[in-house]
Amino acid sequence: MQIVDAHQHFWDLARNYHPWLCDAEPIPFRYGDYSALRRSYLPADYRADAGRFEVVGSVYVEAEFDPGDPMGEVDWVTAVHDTSGLPSVIVAQAWLDRADCGEVLGAYGAHPLVRGIRHKPRAAATPDQARRGAEGSMDDPAWRAGYALLSAYGLSFDLQTPWWHLEAATDLARDFPQTQIILNHTGLPSDHDRAALHRWQEALQRLASCPNVAVKISGLGQPGQPWRAEDNRDIVLETIAAFSPERVMFASNFPVDSLVARFETIFEGFDTITRGFSETERSAMFRDTGRRIYRMEER
């Protein structure tokens, strides 16, 4: 099966500054200890991890590069693409509530590989702490003013936020229907307690009611536990039921998810879980939806 990996990263720590990977003090991280990621990760490493799988395209998603030089990340990734053929397209870093937002988005809109941006909105640590209207959140007028510029430059928006903020995401999608949103990492259903998963499912279904939203099934690891298809089956199937295969993309999130599983384990798990779907539907989720949503045929 051909794969378009809808979410992966590269970094060269000998050349570039990624604060979370380069600074001595680690940040809080959902998988716990991430010291194994503090090494350069380049296309040769990715291809070795992908192994026998035929990756025919990939989406590079910003990797929290030096926030003072967002275009520097795009320039470096473009050079990687030119020499290795990967990635196919780029989701770049942007800060929607910063004064230079319009200038940065204008440069991205003119770049042949950039398809969209990611700016993680402010989020609460737990569902009980979630409040609407916080500064830096999807409700923030300054943040929304930057978001409103995306459609003018033909840019999509990769949204990484936990499921307890998907009500705000639903309002965002409805208020800006011309902007394509791609929900990252399945809405982060990190707590597999039955009650928590029920609330995640309800929030996901509300967001899926917006036709301008797609989802990437990825990032399903649990800290300290092996990635197993049987543990993730219900999450995967419920996500597909909410969005349909035409708005679902499978992704590795490598090398980040190498902390919880091998590339082979993750994609064999997706393969096993989706055996009941038609080949057309499986081709959509593994390849064609990613190509379409990220406009990989455009140059």
Please describe what this structure looks like:
The protein has helices spanning 19-22, 43-50, 70-84, 101-109, 141-147, 166-175, 194-208, 229-243, 263-273, 279-293, and strands spanning 2-8, 54-61, 89-93, 114-118, 156-159, 181-183, 213-217, 248-250. It is an alpha/beta fold and 299 residues long. It has one domain: TIM Barrel (Alpha-Beta Barrel), CATH 3.20.20.140. The chain has an 8-stranded parallel β-sheet with strand order 1-2-3-4-5-6-7-8. Helix 6 packs parallel to helix 7 and helix 7 runs parallel beside helix 8 (229-243). The chain starts with a strand and ends in a 6-residue tail after the last helix. GO terms for molecular function: hydrolase activity. Keywords: Hydrolase. Residues 4-295 form the Amidohydrolase-related domain.
